[in-house]
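Dear colleague,

Thank you for sharing your sequence with our group. We've completed the structure prediction you requested, and as agreed, I am returning the results in plain text so they can be pasted directly into your records. Please verify that the sequence below matches your submission; if there's any discrepancy, let me know and we will rerun it promptly.
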Amino acid sequence: MDYLKRRHLLLASGAALLPPLMAGCGGANAQETLPFPDVADTKYASAELVTFMNSYFAAKTRRDVSTTMSFFSPDLVTYIDATLGWDVAGFSALQGLFAQYMAQWPSTAKSYPTRIVGDMTGAMIAFTDTPELFGGELRLQGIVDFKDGRIVRWVDYWDSRGWENNFGLPKTQLLNLRESQVPARASYRFKTTGQQLAQTLGIGNAAAAVALFSEDAIYEDTALRLRLQGARQIKRYFDRAITQLPHGTGSTLRHLAGNDAGGAVEWVSAPGAPTRSGMSALVLDSDAKIIRCSVMYDGGWYSSPQLLALGALSFDN
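Please find the predicted structure tokens below.
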């Protein structure tokens, strides 16, 4: 039985378990109205992960430091913002950061998921932080690793172009994202596809990379505001752009997390790329083909001419 069939059965039979699961995660009661827009695409996530994440973001939006921290393992390795260059190592450091910022958030501040993929071994979470949190609206993709039902590593990626930065936060780039401290617990199927994608792009083999995509796949580059549909269109773009993409020729795999339905692949950028790292959020079909690939990195390290030139490679004559 493939993942989607299993998930439908779990959702059909497990609705009664949601309140206990919420309580076990230390979060909001399942019957409560969420304090943020309930807009998340959860088709490719386990029911337990959806419950966990809704409860986590509810606590965060309510500015409840102690409940928010209950979702993290006491053995937390790190919470990293790869765009700002924040490496918040350890449980106590993260608790202090949340206490500092949440005390300043007004009641209008919200942090909420828009897409959830994976399960309680590893996941990709796309989410939004409203401008009150960090001085401008953030549209982020995070890769999350779990151990014993709690978060042990969370890394966020986002594009800083258009970010107002009203708080004047400094920005730097990290080399070490502490991935070596967290074993990759991705499912075999996701690990295989994710590794093959990183490898084929890294050696500049566009044909082999596109062979991993389904016929009607969608490829998105959030920094370029680029969206392509269909393997043939993606292939034409890769043929022209693979040597210039930050996740193209010369890039290497950093870490991955996910299940049979999808997850996240982190990569180290190709030498010479303005950005040092990024991630690709993948959704897979029942044949382990990629049906959606959303690439996220900080375009703020590129000049406008660089981005325009890279985006122009998607144009068909």
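Summary note from our side: The longest strand covers residues 138-147.

Kind regards,
the structure core
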